[in-house]
Amino acid sequence: MDLFSYCPDCASKISMNQETCSNCGLEIAKHSEEIKKNQTASLKRWLCFWIT
Question: Which Pfam families does this chain map to (predicted)?
Answer without folding.
Answer: Zn_Ribbon_1
